[in-house]
Design goal:
CATH architecture of the largest domain in chain A: Roll
Largest interface: A-B, 28 and 29 residues
CATH class of the largest domain in chain A: Alpha Beta
Distance between the termini of chain A: 41 Å
Structural class of chain B: alpha+beta
Oligomer: heterodimer
Number of strands of chain A: 5
CATH topology of the largest domain in chain B: Uridine Diphospho-n-acetylenolpyruvylglucosamine Reductase, domain 3
Number of strands of chain B: 13
Helix content of chain A: 25-40%
Shape of chain B: globular
Distance between the termini of chain B: 46 Å
CATH architecture of the largest domain in chain B: 2-Layer Sandwich
Chain lengths: 152, 291
């Protein structure tokens, strides 16, 4: 079926099968490979993108469900040609090693800071608790998000 | 790579349209709400519906409000919405206790209350919470709507009374004076399905338990409830001894299975201990001693 969605401010129309998952639509059809395809079981959170105003796990959403909606991926985080404070925070505080979980982590972090500009470490840990990082032990991710909160 | 099998798909634009689509596609059609249970099942080919009727556009099914002395929850309400709804926690703290331990925040953003209930997983948390609260489910079909008590909603693992062509639209709970409620869950790790969990609702008159509801999940309790323990509590004093005994009775009447989450005798122990803990907290809340 024909679907149309706005991804990072750009409108895209494509013919897709109803069974196509949103993560594969973004990566394979639109070439937006910043969103990662991880566990395929909605556990790891590497595939988190925003659907309208809400972070969702895009391996568990059909592309057709996003028809008529807005999607924001990690490619849509930078604005006015500059990095988002969350991206800067991850760079400043060594918030990533292999980088696989990073796009999802940053999108959830951006959502958290939009709703709670000064979150505690505990609130940050709760917000990212559906996302798995195998490198950092989370400590540096929490620091990165705190950095972003302090440099908004 | 897990990919669902070929499937037809239509977006419903109203409840009536959803029912018409269900009628058109026949018994192998499924309602698609958040999809956080259905899509993983489809990816594993455990579920292979011929058609999906997407109800995500039906904002009329997404609400948490009090009308006519009842808390009403629209079936399309997201878990995160229920957790954020102050009115739900104010009347039934058990709902917020349970929502805090269902999956993780990102899954809760999109998974729905109605979807969880209709998935009817035998370890599902809200099924126990609504059993404890003696909630009612409103189901709409081509011939109109009908109301089913929470304890008659599930007919077995992954099975409910919602027939082909029907749609769960609302869950409602009567608000009664003197009430308090709580939910207690033990899982292997944060966000996992429970090894065992218990929900309790208590209605006090003075220090006497006028009525009690106990919900159990993942431990093989009939209708997600502990009817014998509730019967024991009705008219009993709200003392530690009563609550302990109710936990024991609840455990005696459930039928847990040994699996990768733990042996049956451990789950039975959990049923007893978690029932007592949930009851204790429900009583403190009914007495206004705890938020």
């Amino acid at each position: 079926m024909q679907i149309t969605m706005t991804v990072n401010g750009t409108e895209y129309s494509r013919e897709v099968e109803a069974r196509l998952l949103l993560i594969h639509f973004l990566r394979d059809q639109l070439g937006l490979t910043g969103s990662h395809w991880g566990c395929d079981t909605s556990n790891c959170g590497a595939c988190v993108v925003w659907l309208d105003e809400t972070p969702v796990k895009s391996c568990t959403v059909l592309a057709v469900m996003a028809d008529g909606h807005r999607v924001r991926t990690v490619e849509g985080l930078e604005h006015y040609g500059g990095l988002d404070p969350v991206q800067q925070g991850f760079a400043e505080c060594h918030g990533l090693q292999c980088g696989f979980c990073t796009p999802g982590m940053m999108l959830t972090a951006r959502w958290l800071l939009d709703h709670n500009p000064d979150p505690s470490a505990e609130q940050i840990r709760e917000a990212i608790s559906g996302q798995t990082c195998r490198c950092t032990g989370y400590e540096n991710i929490v620091r990165s998000i705190r950095w972003a909160a302090e440099h908004a | 790579m897990q990919v669902p099998a070929y499937v037809e798909y239509e977006k419903a634009t109203s409840i009536e349209h959803a029912l018409a689509l269900l009628a058109r596609f026949g018994p192998e059609a499924r309602i698609l709400a958040g999809g956080h249970s259905l899509i993983p099942m489809m990816k594993l080919r455990i579920a292979q519906p011929e058609a999906l009727v997407d109800i995500n556009g039906l904002s009329a099914l997404s609400y948490v409000r009090v009308t006519d002395g009842e808390l009403r929850i629209g079936a399309l309400t997201r878990h995160a919405q229920l957790l954020d709804a102050l009115v739900a926690g104010q009347h039934f703290a058990i709902l917020h206790d349970a929502e805090r331990v269902i999956a993780d925040p990102v899954v809760r953003n999109w998974g729905t209350v109605g979807g969880s209930l209709c998935q009817a997983d035998p370890s599902e948390d809200l099924s126990a919470a609504f059993a404890a609260l003696k909630a009612s489910m409103i189901i709409q079909g081509p011939g109109g709507s009908r109301m089913v008590p929470a304890r008659e909603f599930h007919t077995g693992p992954y099975q409910t009374v919602v027939a082909p062509g029907e749609l769960l639209t609302e869950i409602k709970i009567a608000i009664r004076p003197g009430g308090g409620s709580a939910y207690q869950k033990v899982g292997r790790r944060v966000g996992d399905w429970p090894v065992g969990a218990a929900g309790a609702a208590i209605w006090l008159v003075g220090d006497t338990i006028a009525d009690a509801g106990i919900g159990l999940t993942a431990v093989g309790a009939r209708h997600f409830a502990a009817a014998e323990a509730e019967e024991f509590l009705r008219g009993a004093p709200a003392t530690e001894a009563s609550l302990r005994r109710a936990g024991e009775i609840a455990a005696e009447h459930c039928h847990p299975s040994s699996d990768q989450r733990g042996p049956a005798d451990y789950k039975r122990h959990l049923a007893s201990e978690l029932t007592t803990r949930a009851l204790r907290r429900a009583v403190r809340r009914a007495q206004g001693q705890e938020a």
